[in-house]
Specification:
By secondary structure, this protein is mainly β. The chain has a domain of 105 residues: Lamin Tail domain (Immunoglobulin-like). Helices cover 12% and strands 32% of the residues. It has 2 helices and 19 strands. Strands 10-11-16-17 form a 4-stranded mixed sheet, with no helix packed on it. A 4-stranded antiparallel sheet has the order 14-13-18-19, with no helix packed on it. Strands 1-4-5 form a 3-stranded antiparallel sheet, with no helix packed on it. The longest helix has 20 residues. The N and C termini lie far apart (91 Å).
């Protein structure tokens, strides 16, 4: 009986070694690669708030999906039953889908809000100015508290073009400038095709919070 048991253990070990020997070899390196979004270096953090870094596996760079998704204003969940990473947009969801200019390298289907809805109180976050010729719009925080604009959306009503803020906090009393960086200094670059704002026809600007509520409208 003892000999049979020893033989069984030996066969099991050999099969295990053989199985692992047939697995592909992966060389992974923790990378110091920086991820830049609209001129800003992203801070990549895991679900516990700890800093994480990209991995280089066999010459290919892999980014942590949770950290990247959250920087793009997305909710990131894990479905253990189906082993699926689920990305959910925080943008409004009751109009036509548009391409997201914030992340050209990682397209995500999103929606814009209904331009006919009533304005919800936005506190102190307002559209301060719109210069259609220079393709620049300014959002100002006139309050005394910092406000996170992650997931907030600027909408060009006529063209239904939109800019969705990544992880970003607008400090009290500060402004943020969004527009074409080739025409001047901006905080976030936004340019679709040859331009966003219609210079010959009425083109209002609207601002939506992360819940998809219209918080301000700038009449052209």
């Amino acid at each position: 009986m003892k000999k049979k048991f020893v033989l069984f253990v030996l066969v099991f070990v050999l099969l295990t070694i053989f199985g692992y020997a047939n697995l592909p070899t992966i060389e992974a390196t923790i990378s110091d690669v920086s991820i830049e979004l609209n001129g800003s270096i992203l801070e990549l953090k895991d679900a516990n708030g700890e800093m994480v870094k990209p991995l280089i596996v066999n010459g290919t760079t892999y980014l942590p999906v949770r950290a990247i998704g959250q920087n793009l204003g997305l909710d990131v969940d894990w479905n253990g039953k189906t082993k699926t990473v689920v990305l959910t947009s925080n943008a409004p969801s009751n109009a036509t889908s548009q391409s997201d200019n914030v992340a050209n390298s990682a397209p995500v289907t999103n929606t814009v809000a209904n331009p006919n809805q009533n304005i919800t109180s936005s506190g102190n976050i307002k559209i301060a100015a719109l210069d259609k010729k220079t393709e620049c719009i300014i959002i100002k925080n006139s309050g005394n508290s910092d406000v996170s604009l992650a997931g907030w959306t600027i909408l060009s009503v006529r063209g239904e073009q939109r800019f969705r803020f990544p992880e970003f906090t607008l400090k009290a009393g500060d402004s943020v400038k969004v527009g074409d960086k080739s025409r001047g200094q901006v905080d976030f670059h936004w340019l679709e095709d040859k331009g966003v704002w219609n210079n010959s026809k009425k083109d209002d600007a609207e601002l939506y919070n992360g819940k998809g509520e219209l918080v301000d409208r700038y009449e052209d």
